[in-house]
Structure formats: structure tokens, C-alpha cells
Write a structure and sequence with these properties.
homodimer; membrane (chains A, B); 242 residues; CYB561/CYBRD1-like (chains A, B); iron (chains A, B); Cyt_b561/ferric_Rdtase_TM (chains A, B); globular; mainly alpha; 7 helices
């Protein structure tokens, strides 16, 4: 028995699904572009060799990797919900790997910046939660690989792991967005213009709102029972694909 | 067909359920106590008549109302998962009403503080997201009342609203925690001690971690299929209770 009874017709449901997926991509890309403009135009641009602007890669890589790619890695299970699972799993794992690599580069950028300017590392709540998030992200990835892509893992273990993997993954995703909000808050406070709002602070605030909307759309698409996977394969053949 | 097949035995599942509920309450109460100690001992205590400390009611009421009571209002559907629905709905609505009242008082505290010290209102990302969260919270409450407690609402409308109410409610809950994290970040930056960590900043950071753990436990208990409602009433009698 499903958690809810669906009362929407399949057509209605498909139409709202496509609209929400498109909208999610608009807000996801908007977040990446806003981050680029914010740091590129208002905070001095990007450079690995300039100690004062190397920091700018930090928010860019986090938004690109740990928000946009992470969100889309989740969404592949909805967007391709009528397709067989194995290729989707591989895309999910690859997007997450890319997200993780951006996350590591993003951490490198902020440590390089702090070390060059002899600013202490790891003092803020943002850094405590952020480092926890990336560690849990890495563990989730390894857990997902062993649990769902290694063929030897028995079906009973997979069934037990699946709701845990999905729940931790969804929570972690929203935690990453929360960490971004605290990071934007820090950046806006560092500007010393606050409480005055210049263009830079307004863009920071709008970026935060955009991230929340993107996160909300991904969460809604993943949670709503109407958008769940459609099993097109008979149970007998499913074993071959899972 | 359920989203996942449960492979845990009912006893295993009940044991882990009780442990997680107890743990959630420990972290929820710890968050409230930490907030009280943080502001009471390190930030000057509580008073509605003292312009410089009236602010301290803001985080206290937000953590007590919009995190702790909001979380427990969600959890009643799990803790009393084997009981009939109507009394649970009423407790859910009452706890949310209380949470909302604390939220409004919390907003009043920060506006009183800003106005007394002629600090501008509503400039930060924290305030933009916070005010949005409380407005959506109010709308969710009214929507829930009309959708699930007014007896005239037809069953088809309820079924359509339920997943939307649950998804928006869960997302909003985690958004509120994200807003708290940005609020703690602001408070820690206002101290001017950062990047040095005094006891006050360490407690702020630990409070943030505690809120995330509480939120994570509530989210896990709500999401995991093993902990869903157990329907003890026959479908014929259910109509009388829903």
C-alpha cells in the first residue's frame, strides 16, 4: 500500500512534473550564474594565483558541485523514472563523484585563501557543518557504491539500505543548502557594508533565495508520490537490471 | 505497493524507533537549554524592557517554537502511529499554533530591538528567509485546518493535499533550521571575537550542530518507511476518524 492515494490523472501529473523539472533547472542554473556574477563582478574575479581572490572559487565550486550537480544527481531518478535502473544508477554515481570533486576543490580554495592570508581555519559554524557535510557525502557515496552497484551485495541488504541512503542523501542535500546560506551570510558580513545593501549584498541575498527555491523544487520532485519511479519491467526481469 | 520493502522485523523496527524518538527529544531539549544558557549567561540575559537584551528572546523563541515544538508537532504522527488520527491531528494543529505564536513573539523581539537601537530591519538573508518561512508556516497552518480538520472537505481534496502538505511542511521545517544556522552565524559575527573562539562562540557553534542533529532525527523518523503510521482501524470505520 502506498503512503498516499494518488488522485491526479497521469496526464495532469506528467504535465506538472515536466513544468517543475524545467523550473528546477532554471533556478539551478540561475544559482550558478548568480554565483559567478557575484564573485566575478563584485568580489574581484577568479584566480588560483592571487591570494586575495582565490577564495572566490570556494562558493562557485560549492554551488556548482554540491548544490547544482548534487540536485541533478538526485533528480535523474525522477527524470528517467520510466527507464531501467542500472544506467540511471551509474549517472547518479558519476554526477555525485563530480559534485564531490568540486566540493574538494572548493575546500582547497578556502584553505589556500586562509593560509595565504594567515586567517585561522575551521572556526565558524559554517566550516564545522560544511566539513561534516563533505565527509558524510563521501561516506554516502562509498556506501551507495557498495550497496547498489557492487553486484555481489544481496537484495535483502539493498532493501534495508535504500531508505537509509535516500533519507540521509535528501537530508544532507538540504544541509548543504543550509551551509551555503550561512556562507553567504558570512560573505555579506565581511563586506562591512551591512546593514546597508549595495548591489553585492543584494545579489548575495538573492542567491540564497535562489538556492532555497532550487532545493525546494528538487525536494518536492523527489518527495511527491506522483513523481515516483514507474516500474516498466516485470519483477522477473528486474533482477537483471538492479 | 510501498516505495520500499521493509526487511526489518517489527521488534527490531520498534526498538530502533523508540531509541531514535528518545534521542530526538534529548537533542531537542538540549537545543532549547543551550539557547537559554548562550543568551542568558553569555549575552546579557532576557528582558522585554531592556533595549539591548530584548533581542535575546528572538533566538530563544525561535528555537523553542519553530524548531522544538515544530519538530514535535511533526513527530506526533510517528509517536502515536498506532492510534486513531483525529486526536493526533488536533495535537499537531495545537503544537503548530503554539510554535507559530512563539515565532511571532520572536519576530517582535528582534523588531523591538532594532527599532530601539535604530538598526535597520530586514536587510540580511537571514531576515528575508525567516520572514518568508513564517508566512509560509501560517499559510500551511490555515491550509491544514481547512484541508484536514474541517469535516466538509471532501476526501478527494484531502488525498490531493496530503502529500503537498507533508512535503512543504518537511521542507519548511528544514528551512527553519537553515535560517537558525544563518542567525547563529550572524550572532557569532556580531561578537567581533571571531575568528577567535570564546565560550560564547563555541556554544553558538554547538547549538547549530545540535539543531542539525535534532532536525536530522525528526526527518529520519518521518521519512523512514518502517516508522510510518500503522492503520489499526478497518477502512469502514476509518471514515469516522479522519
Amino acid at each position: 500500500m502506498d503512503r498516499y492515494d494518488s488522485v491526479e490523472s497521469p496526464t495532469e501529473s506528467t504535465r506538472s512534473f515536466i513544468a517543475l523539472v524545467v523550473l528546477s533547472q532554471v533556478f539551478g542554473l540561475l544559482a550558478v550564474v548568480l554565483t559567478g556574477v557575484w564573485l566575478g563582478k563584485y568580489w574581484g574575479g577568479f584566480s588560483w594565483t592571487n591570494a586575495s581572490t582565490v577564495f572566490n572559487y570556494h562558493p562557485l565550486f560549492m554551488v556548482l558541485g554540491l548544490v547544482f550537480l548534487y540536485g541533478d544527481a538526485i533528480l535523474v531518478y525522477r527524470v528517467f523514472r520510466a527507464y531501467r535502473k542500472l544506467p540511471i544508477k551509474i549517472v547518479h554515481a558519476l554526477l555525485h563523484m563530480l559534485a564531490f570533486l568540486f566540493g574538494v576543490l572548493g575546500i582547497k580554495a578556502v584553505f589556500d585563501f586562509h593560509n595565504a592570508l594567515t586567517i585561522p581555519n575551521m572556526y565558524s559554524l559554517h566550516s564545522w557543518l560544511g566539513i561534516t557535510a563533505i565527509v558524510v557525502f563521501g561516506l554516502q557515496w562509498v556506501g551507495g557504491l557498495i550497496g547498489f552497484l557492487v553486484p555481489q551485495t544481496p537484495q535483502s541488504a539493498r532493501s534495508k539500505l535504500l531508505p537509509i541512503h535516500v533519507t540521509i542523501g535528501s537530508f544532507l542535500y538540504l544541509l548543504v543548502i543550509a551551509v551555503c546560506i550561512s556562507g553567504i551570510t558570512e560573505k555579506n558580513f565581511f563586506s562591512k557594508a551591512y546593514p546597508s545593501l549595495r548591489t553585492a549584498e543584494v545579489i548575495g541575498n538573492i542567491l540564497g533565495i535562489t538556492l532555497v527555491i532550487f532545493g525546494g523544487l528538487v525536494f518536492y520532485l523527489v518527495q511527491h508520490p506522483n513523481y515516483r519511479r514507474i516500474d516498466v519491467i516485470s519483477p522477473e526481469r528486474r533482477a537483471l537490471h538492479e
